[in-house]
Design a protein that fits this description.
Blueprint lengths: L1 H8 L3 H26 L3 H29 L3 H24 L1 H16 L9
Length: about 120
């Protein structure tokens, strides 16, 4: 107890803590009514956010080691996936231009237009 009281009174530590606590209390007394006016559901929302944060934290505990294990491979795998997607687009465009598929593409576009839907390649 003596050590604790020495630490609390050393160089005015206790006085600083109490002064800062008083300032914090004044600020909270100013801010909280405004928060309540702006968002009366704040406490309920804060409860939901805290619960969701706890769920995310648990999920990241599982995901963290998995991402660490595959992390070094992600840049290369992502690059290869984008390359494959680009090649697929090129191949599909080439197939659309072929004589046999051109008619089928037009049929699909007509069917889509009849359903009042825009084809995927139109803005």
């Amino acid at each position: 107890m003596t050590k604790l009281s020495k630490q609390a009174t050393y160089k005015g530590n206790l006085q600083n803590v109490v002064a800062n606590l008083a300032i914090t209390t004044q600020e909270l007394n100013t801010i909280l009514p405004e928060l309540n006016r702006e968002n009366p559901e704040l406490a309920k929302d804060l409860g939901k956010m805290t619960k969701n944060l706890a769920i995310l934290t648990n999920d990241f505990k599982v995901l963290g080691p998995a991402l660490t294990a595959i992390g070094p491979e992600l840049p290369q795998a992502t690059k290869r996936a984008v390359e494959a997607l680009n090649e697929t687009v090129v191949m599909l465009k080439a197939m659309q231009k072929s004589m046999f598929i051109r008619g089928s593409v037009q049929e699909v576009r007509d069917e889509e237009a009849a359903r009042n839907r825009k084809p995927a390649n139109t803005p």
